[in-house]
């Protein structure tokens, strides 16, 4: 906020100082005649314009309507070019309109301003043959300013969207466990509660009236055996689904999703997967997952076909099955509450799409979703970047165009010089060919630089082959601005950021020999008879001094802008990825807890219901069904009450690691905690971060794991053996965000094991005589956390 306030007044202040130093400051120092009226006029124009710019972000249109008339009055009452410095306020105001207002407003404002500037130049300046070039420059400058402003507008929009995504990710993280509990509660209620209740009701009725109607006893036993087996199978499928790994919401994940259902006995084929925008991909993935879950419930073992492709209304997703075998067909009304179809339809309609579901002709079921192909290639307005690229090309051609205009307007460049106009087409085409590659500077910066460097040698080649007279070869100097822009493009957009400085070297190593060759082909009188080595040394010094500064400035600005934007994006992306990873971890923990509860409280008694029914023991059927129902109700009540308990849970620290391990052990997982230097006091952020890091890594796998925490030195060290697999990259992203927040790192121990390091207070660390292990590890190689494997 402080930096924003400083930048608000800093630009107007610098502009005012620059104006007053340039005029009337410089003329007064040189002793030129400046009247009091002129001084008062320039002071008034500078003050009004500078103060108006303070509101350029909140009211840019109003600022522009103040700045333009003020500058016009200054042009009327002051010498030509007296207000050149403060006139930049007009471009700043136009830029602000493009940033903070709509594209339509920015374009219309630029058109009006172009017309006004062209008229103003014709009124206040001598009208001559150069007027068309002036008009072209005005158009190029104003279009460039608007394009840059729209690019900045999109940057702000992207940051706002990223902030919204982060807020949504944080909200999902906070609600992940609660959402998963509610979903699992609905699933458990749909899959088993009604059927266990039915067994209890029918078995109780048979016991009450079985003496008068003995046939009810046999019917109750058959119903209990059949329903018990079906409920047990549904519970086993539910447990298997709970143990499936979380999938990323991407259309390319359909194959992995199908593979998970194949392991559950479904025969699933997937065809036509294609790249989709994130929102469409997430909806398609969610619909396919719900549809496949329904096939597992209603058509176990059936052949299922998943197809994703383009249709007349957009992206079309179909999931069809051929129905269950007769032996596997569930009874009428079995399973489900209808929420699955509703949820799929809501996903599709949220994007403006539609969903149909129903039985197929000849048997089976079909789900068809049509989603809008948002983000797919199609006709759209020119992007601001392309407008900027075109404007940059025109600006790069400004100096060459001026040189060509000189040839046209002054055909005799000197005594004995042939008319220059005859060489205009060749010179113009050469300069244009040198600059045109800048149109691709964003996509292929290194290739653009290579083409620009190579075309520098066209001029010496034309002169050496006598295609172009020697004295025209120096028109190459008019195109040197292209090299500067190419270096900037490499620094801004090129791969291998640390090597982009080589672009400056490449330009110098090409330009200096080319200029030396030109000097050899047409040596000035002062260099007549000089050896090539001396000429090369002279050009090395001259070109090195004259070109190194603009080249370095171009590279540095591109590099700094790129680093700033990359860091902003990385912070947002890492934070979103971390929140997503923790949400997945919380949801996975809930699923593991529910799966363990099903094993402990429900599955065993449900299996005994069918066994007792097969033996004809109705009393045992009733007892086991009630026990299973009680276990299910207890599990459901636990799921519904868990959020209130979680709200009272304090922020965890390393002291809570044993409790974390105990929760995992209760779910059937082997977790061992080994702590060295326990009892040490840490700062709250490090203490919390250490706990969250361990929690994140434990959620990645289901096998045995050993966690080592060394608190005896600085930094404190955490090892998790084995490190979890991370095919989606969420765990690595979460680690990056958490470690970056406290200045931590991921390193490798001498034994080759990954080790997480978090900074601790040096004063709190106990001394180690003789250096100890803390110093032995100083030379270890720290690694970057990769996206594929945290370790």
Automatic annotation (TrEMBL):
Q: Name one GO cellular component term.
A: membrane
Q: Where is this region: Disordered?
A: 321-341, 746-791
User: Is this entry keyworded Phosphoprotein?
Assistant: yes
Q: Which residues form a coiled coil?
A: none
Reaction equations catalysed: ATP + protein L-histidine = ADP + protein N-phospho-L-histidine
In this chain, composition skew of type Low complexity spans: 759-768
Give residue ranges for domain Histidine kinase/HSP90-like ATPase.
Answer: 283-373
Q: Which UniProt keywords apply?
A: ATP-binding, Kinase, Membrane, Nucleotide-binding, Phosphoprotein, Transferase, Transmembrane, Transmembrane helix, Two-component regulatory system
- Which regions span the lipid bilayer? 32-54, 61-78, 84-100, 107-127, 133-151, 387-408, 420-440, 447-468, 474-491, 498-521, 533-561
Gene3D superfamilies (UniProt xref):
1.20.5.1930, Histidine kinase-like ATPase, C-terminal domain (3.30.565.10)
Lineage top rank: taxon: Bacteria
Spell out the molecular function terms from Gene Ontology: ATP binding; phosphorelay sensor kinase activity; protein dimerization activity
Give all residue intervals belonging to the Signal transduction histidine kinase subgroup 3 dimerisation and phosphoacceptor domain.
180-246
**Major enzyme class:** transferase
Enzyme Commission code: 2.7.13.3
Q: Name one Pfam family in it.
A: HisKA_3
Q: Which PANTHER family did the record assign?
A: NITRATE/NITRITE SENSOR PROTEIN NARX-RELATED (PTHR24421), NITRATE_NITRITE SENSOR PROTEIN NARQ (PTHR24421:SF10)
By what name is this protein known? histidine kinase
Species name for this entry? Couchioplanes caeruleus subsp. caeruleus
């Amino acid at each position: 906020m402080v930096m924003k306030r400083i930048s608000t007044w800093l630009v107007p202040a610098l502009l005012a100082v620059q104006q007053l130093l340039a005029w009337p400051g410089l003329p007064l120092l040189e002793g030129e005649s400046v009247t009091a009226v002129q001084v008062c006029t320039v002071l008034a124009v500078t003050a009004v314009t500078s103060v108006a710019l303070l509101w350029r972000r909140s009211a840019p249109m109003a600022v522009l309507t103040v700045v333009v008339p003020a500058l016009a009055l200054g042009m009327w009452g002051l010498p030509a070019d007296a207000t050149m410095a403060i006139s930049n306020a007009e471009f700043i105001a136009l830029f602000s309109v493009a940033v903070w207002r709509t594209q339509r407003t920015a374009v219309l404002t630029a058109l009006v301003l172009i017309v006004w500037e062209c008229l103003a130049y014709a009124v206040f300046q001598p009208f001559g043959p150069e007027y068309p070039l002036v008009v072209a420059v005005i158009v190029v400058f104003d279009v460039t300013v608007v394009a840059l402003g729209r690019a900045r507008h999109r940057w702000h929009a992207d940051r706002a969207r990223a902030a919204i995504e982060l807020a949504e990710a944080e909200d999902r993280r906070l609600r992940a466990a609660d959402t998963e509990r509610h979903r699992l509660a609905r699933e458990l209620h749909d899959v088993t509660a009604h059927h266990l209740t039915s067994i209890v009701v029918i078995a109780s009725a048979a016991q009450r009236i079985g003496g008068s109607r003995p046939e009810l006893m046999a019917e109750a036993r058959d119903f209990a055996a059949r329903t018990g087996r079906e409920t047990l199978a549904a519970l086993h499928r539910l447990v298997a689904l709970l143990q499936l790994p979380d999938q990323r919401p991407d259309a390319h994940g359909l194959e992995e999703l199908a593979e998970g259902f194949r392991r559950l006995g479904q025969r699933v084929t997937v065809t036509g997967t294609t790249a989709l925008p994130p929102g469409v991909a997430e909806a398609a993935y969610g619909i396919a997952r719900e549809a496949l879950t329904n096939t597992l419930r209603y058509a176990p073992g059936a052949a299922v076909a998943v197809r994703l492709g383009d249709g007349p209304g957009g992206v079309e997703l179909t999931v069809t099955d051929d129905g269950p075998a007769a032996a596997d067909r569930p009874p009428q009304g079995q399973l489900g509450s209808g929420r699955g179809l509703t949820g799929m339809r809501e996903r599709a309609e949220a994007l403006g799409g539609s969903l149909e579901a129903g039985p197929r002709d000849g048997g089976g079921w079909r789900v068809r979703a049509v989603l809008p192909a948002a983000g797919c290639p199609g006709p759209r307005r020119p992007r601001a970047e392309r407008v900027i690229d075109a404007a940059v090309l025109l600006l790069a051609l400004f100096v060459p165009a001026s040189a060509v205009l000189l040839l046209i307007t002054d055909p005799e460049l000197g005594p004995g010089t042939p008319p220059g106009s005859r060489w205009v087409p060749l010179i113009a085409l050469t300069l244009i060919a040198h600059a045109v590659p800048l149109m691709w500077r964003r996509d292929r910066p290194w290739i653009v630089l290579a083409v620009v460097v190579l075309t520098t040698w066209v001029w010496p080649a034309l002169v050496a082959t006598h295609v172009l007279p020697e004295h025209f070869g120096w028109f190459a100097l008019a195109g040197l601005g292209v090299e500067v822009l190419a270096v900037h493009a490499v620094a801004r957009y090129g791969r291998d950021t640390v090597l982009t400085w080589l672009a400056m070297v490449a330009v110098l190593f090409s330009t200096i020999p080319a200029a030396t060759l030109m000097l050899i082909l047409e040596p000035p009188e002062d260099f007549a008879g000089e050896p090539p080595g001396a000429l090369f040394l002279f050009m090395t010094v001259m070109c090195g001094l004259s070109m190194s500064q603009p080249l370095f400035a171009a590279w540095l600005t591109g590099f700094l802008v790129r680093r700033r934007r990359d860091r902003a994006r990385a912070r947002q992306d890492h934070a979103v990825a971390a929140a997503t990873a923790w949400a997945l971890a919380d949801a996975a923990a809930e699923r593991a807890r529910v799966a363990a509860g099903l094993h402990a409280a429900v599955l065993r008694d449900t299996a005994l219901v069918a066994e007792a029914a097969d033996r004809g023991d109705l009393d045992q059927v009733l007892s086991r069904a009630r026990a299973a129902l009680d276990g299910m109700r207890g599990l459901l009540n636990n799921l519904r009450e868990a959020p209130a308990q979680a709200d009272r849970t304090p922020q965890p620290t390393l002291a809570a690691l044993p409790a974390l391990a105990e929760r995992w052990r209760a779910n059937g997982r082997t977790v061992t905690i080994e702590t060295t230097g326990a009892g040490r006091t840490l700062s709250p952020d490090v203490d919390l971060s250490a706990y969250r890091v361990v929690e994140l890594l434990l959620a990645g796998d289901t096998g045995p794991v050993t966690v080592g925490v060394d608190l005896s030195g600085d930094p404190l060290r955490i090892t998790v053996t084995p490190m979890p697999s991370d095919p989606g990259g969420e765990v690595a992203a979460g680690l990056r965000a958490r470690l970056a927040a406290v200045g931590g790192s991921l390193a490798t121990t001498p034994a080759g094991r990954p080790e997480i390091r978090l900074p601790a207070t040096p004063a709190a660390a106990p001394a180690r005589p003789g250096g100890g292990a803390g110093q032995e590890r100083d030379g270890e190689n720290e690694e970057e956390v990769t996206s594929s494997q945290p370790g």
